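Bug report (template v2)

What were you trying to do?
Predict the complex of my protein with thiamine diphosphate.

What happened?
Run completed; filing so the output is reviewed.

Input:
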Amino acid sequence: MTFATGTGYLKDGCLPHMWCPGCGHGIALGNMLRAFEELGFKKNETVVVTGIGCWGKTDDYLTTNALHTTHGRALAFATGIKAFNPKLNVVVLMGDGDGVTIGGNHFIHAARRNIDLTAIVLNNYNYGMTGGQCSGTTPGGKYTSTTVYGNPEREMDICALAGVTGANYVARGTVYHSFDLKELFKEALGKKGFSLVEVVSPCPTHYGRNNNMKKGLQMLNWLKEKAVHKEKFDRLNPAEKEDCFSIGKLVDRDEPDFNTRYEQIRAGIMEGGAANEEKI
Ligand SMILES: Cc1ncc(C[n+]2csc(CCOP(=O)(O)OP(=O)(O)O)c2C)c(N)n1
Ligand code: SF4
């Protein structure tokens, strides 16, 4: 039996990487690259688009095509790439700050368009790269460098947002549940339309240190305890659900993606049918 390693997608000499000991980003990257390999993704047909942040540094290590964009705007660049060349595998890597806080508007509209991309959002509940500030996913009451007395805001559910705005595929995993993660990535990458995998990932350096989990291992145990597979989670009562979150595939549908709808309109025009002649 052979196991995918995904190492063919890593640049020579890229180790050691820049992530802190105990950071979950490396585990997510390893599983993403194993998923690429098992799906047979060719480097020249794959574009990894990143924003800014610790997770956004990932493109530095890859041999695929890569585009390092501005903070919060990765999905806008990725949308342009996919709309221009629908044959490419476009994978967008963003942190929770990048993807759904500063970049929240792009996230909503990428899902609404159902553009055929895979977004992998690493949720470590804070802005890791810039010193552990509070983000849109920091849970209420939790401590960060900008909420030293506890967060007065409520956390955003990234998966619920993607689901209601129209994504074809939505899943949540954690870096503790590493094998499941690779399978979720494979499903998302193989799905037509907007697909999201939220990966809950430890940032011991900031989020952990501020919330009594200084060590990476403590954070992994915390993920083990808090993450509940969807089937089991659905059977919990509301009070029990308060203290945990669901993992697994949460949404799976087959609505037409942006490029399909665009091509249908274009084909109609090419056949001579102006859509609304009265208004032209
Ligand atoms: C427009 C803009 N605003 C702010 C920044 C500063 N900045 C860079 S990375 C970052 C936070 C990244 O956090 P997140 O996206 O959660 O990723 P992580 O570092 O936790 O992986 C911020 C605020 C920036 N580069 N550009
Ligand atoms: S600051 Fe946090 S997110 Fe960034 S590399 Fe360190 S542990 Fe990871």
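What did the reviewer find?
The chain is about 35% helix and 20% strand. The domain at 19-255 is CATH 3.40.50.970 (Rossmann fold).
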